[in-house]
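Hello forum,

I keep getting stuck at the same step: I have a sequence, I want structure tokens, and every attempt I make locally crashes halfway through. Rather than fight my setup again tonight, could one of you with a working pipeline run this one for me? It's a single chain of 219 residues.
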Amino acid sequence: MVKKYKAVIFDWDGTLMDSEARIVNSIQAAAKVCGLPVLSDYDSKQIIGLSLELAILGLYPNAEQSQVVAMGEAYTQHFLEDCKVPMQAFDGAESLLFNLRQHGLKLAIATGKSRKGLDQVLGECGFGVYFDMTRTPVESASKPNPLMLDQILTELGLSVDEVVMIGDTTFDMEMAQNIGMDRIALSHGVHQMELLAEYNPVAQLDSLQELNVWLVQNI
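Reply #2:
Ran it on my machine without issues. Output:
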């Protein structure tokens, strides 16, 4: 028997929003400002999805707390105000969200972005109207801790079996696995599919168009 979902939880960066280049540029700019080594694009992007503090510590495990704070502030300033690297939603993102709402699904976001950062980008792209609720590490815990998912389930009044998590990183997959939630891996984001496949996603897809087709068959 095919499972029918009542809600879909999305990661943001790398899943709905193609923001990898902007994030990497902001990480590298912040490191330069704070006198920390500027890492390669590949190394810098591996922490996308974590809360900002954990991301910085993941890149610079020997950094002092004052450096973590300073880099966090520099990153936020650069990403929200100074960075000229554009970002845009992945092709098909808005039509996917609109279609799922038309089918009566509840939609939520579980992201490693800050609350300020998420609210700003949702306002800029206009996608905020599609979501019933959103969670960031500011009011929850960073991935792969499943607290964000647990909070969303409670707010929506749904069981874990009625919801699926969509993401592009191992942090997304591990978070969903930690709470026993079905998960779908997308290849167009940060982490390679062979890494995501280790978390036994119910589907491995290459685009939001493919995701749209898959979800319509399972709602």
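The chain has two domains: 7-18+88-216, 20-82. If your local run keeps crashing, start a new thread with the error log.
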